[in-house]
Amino acid sequence: MSSLWPELERLLGEVQKPARYIGCEDGMILPAHHPDKAAWLLIYPDTYEVGLPNQGLQILYEILNERPDAVAERSYAPWTDLAAVLRREGLPLFSLDTHRAAGDFDLLAFNLSAELVYTNLLECLDLAGVPIRAADRGPEHPLVLVGGHCSYNPEPLADFIDAAVLGDGEEVVSEISEVVAAWKAQGRTSREDVLLALAGVTGVYVPSLYTVGFRDDGILDVVRPLHPAVPELVEKRTVADLADWPYPNNQLVSLTEVVHDRLNVEVFRGCTRGCRFCQAGMITRPVRERPAEQVRTMVAEGLRRTGYDEVALTSLSTADFSGITEVVADTVSDDACGQVSVSLPSLRVDAFTVGIAAQIQRARRTGLTFAPEAGTWRMRQVINKLIREEDLYGAVESAFSQGWRRVKLYFLTGLPTETDEDTLGIIEMAEKCVEIGRRHQKGASVTISVGAFVPKPFTPFQWFGQNTEQELNRKVGLLRDAARKAKGVQLKWHDTRASVVEGLLSRGDRRMGVVIEDVWRNGGVFQEWGEHFALGLWTDAMDRHGVSFEEHVYRHRHEDEALPWDHLSAGLHKDFLWQDWRDALDEVGLEDCRWTPCYDCGACTGYGIEHVVASAIPPAGGSQGTGQELGPDRVGAVPVGLSQRRPPIVEPSVEPNLLPAGAER
Amino acid sequence: MSVVANPRIRIRFSKQGKVRFTSHRDVARIWERALRRVALPVAYSEGFSPRPKISYGLALPTGYASEGEYLDVELDREQAESLGLVSQGILGNPQDGLIGRLNQVLPVGIRAQAIAPVQPGSSSLQQAVVACTWEFEVDAAGFDEVEAWVSRVLDADEIIVERERKGKRVTDDVRPLVEALEVGRGRCGTGGETVRVTAVLGTQPRALRPVELLEAMSVDPTAGPHPPLSARIVCRMQQWTLRESQESQESQESQESQESQESQESQQSKEDIKITQGDARVEPLSVDAGPAALVETRV
C-alpha cells in the first residue's frame, strides 16, 4: 500500500504531458486509508484533460472523503505512451492523489459519459492488474462499478463490471460504502456475499445476479433475476433537492490546462423540455433548481478560492434557470471577483438568451452558439425541439445587431422520419441566418455543425432504427453539396463511422461484451479520439462473433419486443415513452411540462418527488423554444398540435406542482 | 499629462517535486491564478481580450526543478497607490506578508522566495540573464566516468551540436556556452553515493541545456561504444545577470542597489562574456541573495 511515485518519477520524462499524472491540484485530498474504510478509486476512463473537470466525479470525491468510513482517490486513463511504459516496467495503474496502486483499492468506480470509452475501461482494469471479466475475480480483487449516463444500459459491459449504479450518486455512494466497509470488517470472504448485499441497495444493479433469455429468432426475450432477494426492476436514484448538496465545494483546479478550465457551478439538474433525442433530458428528471442565493455563494466563494476568472453556470438549459438574469448581473458586477466572464453552456434559442449573452460578453463578441437541431418545423415537431423560425431568426438578428460576428448552429441528421427536404432545410436555415447577419455586418458568417443522431435508451427514440452509415454519408454529402453553393455558410460534420459504433454500444445487449473485449485485445483504445478510432477493429470483431449492425443498430424495434434495459428504470414509464414515440411519428409536439399539468411520465410521481423551481412564472421572451406562448400576456392557441389524451393548457402561475426552491424542506 | 509608468515587481520562486512536471505555460497560468487569489492589483492589457501584464524569464524545460525562477509583474499604478503599496515601499520588503500569502495559495512545490521592485526602464528577464547554474545527478555512471566526461568537455576546442530549428537542421558550437563545469559526490537517500555535476551554462545567444551537453559529449571516442550518460533531477540553481561596473560591486551587500544594476547592463557587453571565479562583472539575478561562488572555471 505504498506510493509508486519514486518509480513513476523516473519514467515521467519519457511521456507526453507528464503533468497529467502528478495530481497536486488545488482541492486535492490526501485521504488517510484505514482497514475499516471502504477505499474508492474514482476513474474517468478518458484522458486527464477530459476527465478532470467532470463534476459528477468531483462531487463523489468530496462526499466520500467527508465520510468516516470511506476514502476516495482519482485516476484517469493513461495515454497510450504511459500505458506502454507501465507495462514495460511492470507497474500498475495508480491513483493521482497518493500514487497508490489501483489494485489496492476496494472499489474501482468508473464514470461513463460516453459509449466509445468502453474499451478504455478494460484497459484500465488490465493495467490495474484486475481480471477484466467479473467471473474471474476473487475476494482479493476490487469491486468494479460504473455510474454516469451510460450506466442506464450497462448490458454491453455486463461481463466486465460487478455493479452499475443508476442515477444521482450523492446518496447511494454512502450506502455502498457501508456495505463494502462491513464486508471488509468480516474479512472480505465471499464475493457473492458482497454482490448480493450491493444488489439490495436501491439504484444498484448487479448483472451477474440476472440471466438473459433470447427468442428463437435471436431477439432478446427477457432479463430475469437469478436470486429471490434481488429486485426485478432496479430503480434509479434521485436527490430531491440540490440545495442539500452544494458540491463540489472545493472544485479541483488543475495545474495543467484541461477542458472547461474554469469554475463550474451547477444551477439545476434535470430538464423538462422533452426533446425526444436527448437522453440526458429524459433520465435526469425532474428539474431541481439550486436556490439562487446558494448559486451566488458558490460562484463568489469559488472564484475567490480558485483564482479562476471565468465561471460557467451549468445545466441542460441554463437560460431556463429562474432568476438567471439577476444571478448573471450580480456576478459580472461583483467587484470582489475582479474581471470575471460568465459562460452559459446549453443556451436555448431566442432573443432573451441573446440579451443575457450581451450582458456577459461585453468584450469578446466573437461567436455565439445555438442548437436548433433540425432544419424544418416539421422535423422539429418530430424531435420536440419546438423552436419556431421566428425564435431563431430573432435570436440571430439580435446577435448580429449587437456585434457578434459569427453564429454557430448545431444540427442532427439521421433523425426519425427525416426526408431530404428536412436535411437540406439545415442549409436553407443557415443561408437565411447569413442574410440576416449581412444586414448588420458585411462579413457575417454562420458555421453549422452536424452530428449523426444515435438513439439512446430511455428516450422515445429508443425504438428507432438508426440510419445506416451509408445513409448518413449520403445525407452529409447532400449537405456538403448544398453548403458549397451557400454564401457565408461553413459546414462541419462528425465522423459517421464512430456514430454507428456508438449506436451499437448504446442500445446493445450482453452479446456486445465479446466484441468490446475483442476490439480492446486488438489494441482498440481511446476510440472516442479520431486519431485512434478504427471501424475495422469493430467490424472484424463483430464478424467473428456474429454481431451485426443490421440487427442491433439499424433495425426498428417492435412495441412488444423486450429492450436490453427493461429491467432497469429511469423513472419514465415505458408506455409514456411509447406514446411519445407515436406522437413523434405523427409530428405532434409535447409542451414543456414545467408550464403545464403533469403528463405522468413517471419521473416525479414514481418517486414522490417534484420539480423544485424558484419561480413558476416563465421569464419574458416569447416561446423560449418550447413552442408555447409564454409570459404574462400569454393568450391564444399554441402552434403545436396536441394529442387527444393531453390535458388542457392552464395558466402556469396556478400550477400546483411548481414549488419555490426548498419549500418542501 | 505625463504618463507615469506602472510599478513592476520581480518575484523569485522555486519549483521542486511533483510539480516540476508542469510546463512553462502551466506555471504561467498557476501564477495568474495565484496573483488573483492574493488580490494583487495586476495591470491588464487593453483591448479585445485583456491579459494580465506578467512576464516570465527563460523557460524551464518540463521536468526540470529550479531554485531560481523569476517573473515580473506590472501593477496597476492607481490601484497600487490607493492600496499604499508604492508609497510605503512594502513591496520591497520580503516581510510584508505577500510572500506568505502567495505561498498559501501556490501549489506544493512552487514557493515564492523573494520579492523586490524593478527599477523603471530595466531590461526584461529574458534579456538580462546571461548564464544559469545547473545541478544534476548522472544516472548509472561512476565518478571516474563522469570526471572523464567533464575533462573532455573542458578540453574541447569546440562542441558541435545539431538541432532542429523552425524545421531546419542547424549546427552550433556550444563550447563557448560552457562557463564552468564541476563533478562532485552526493548522497541520495538510502541509495548510497551519487555523482553530481554542477554546470554554469550560457544563455546568449541561445540557452544551452545540461542534457544537450551531456548527450553531445557523452561518448568517449577512445573508450569505444558504451551507453550515453543520462541525467536525473536536473535543477536550475541560479540565474546570472551582468553587473554594470566595478563601483556597483561595492554596494552588492545592498539588495536595493543590486536590483537597480540589473537594469543597466548594455547589449554590447554580453557578446564576449566569459565568467570566471569571483568574476566581478556578474551577479546572481536575485532579489535577496548575495552572489553565489562560481566553481571550476575555464579561464
Instruction: Identify the CATH class of the domain at 5-235 in chain A.
Output: Alpha Beta
The general outline of chain A is globular
Any guess at the CATH architecture of the domain at 5-235 in chain A? Answer: 3-Layer(aba) Sandwich
User: What ranges of chain A have pLDDT less than 50 throughout 5 or more consecutive residues?
Assistant: 631-665
Question: What features would you describe in this structure?
Answer:
The complex is a heterodimer of chains A (665) and B (299). Chain A has 665 residues and is an alpha/beta fold. Chain A has a domain at 5-235: 3-Layer(aba) Sandwich (Rossmann fold), CATH 3.40.50. Chain A has 20 helices and 19 strands. Chain A has helices at residues 5-11, 48-51, 55-66, 80-89, 118-128, 172-185, 191-199, 279-283, 292-306, 324-333, 351-360, 377-383, 389-401, 420-440, 469-485, 496-506, 512-521, 535-545, 549-554, 574-585; strands spanning 38-44, 70-76, 107-111, 143-147, 163-165, 204-205, 210-214, 220-225, 234-235, 263-266, 268-269, 288-289, 310-314, 341-343, 367-373, 406-413, 445-452, 489-493, 568-569. In chain A, strand 16 (406-413), helix 14 (420-440) and strand 17 (445-452) form a beta-alpha-beta unit. With 299 residues, chain B is α+β, with helices and mostly antiparallel strands. Chain B folds into two domains: 8-118, 2-Layer Sandwich (Alpha-Beta Plaits), CATH 3.30.70; 123-299, no CATH class. In chain B, strands 1, 2, 3, 4, 5, 8, 9, 10 and 11 form a nine-stranded mixed beta sheet that branches. The longest helix of chain B has 14 residues, at 24-37. The termini of chain B are far apart. Mean pLDDT of chain B is 76; it is low at 245-278 and 288-299. The interface between A and B is medium-sized, with 27 and 27 residues.
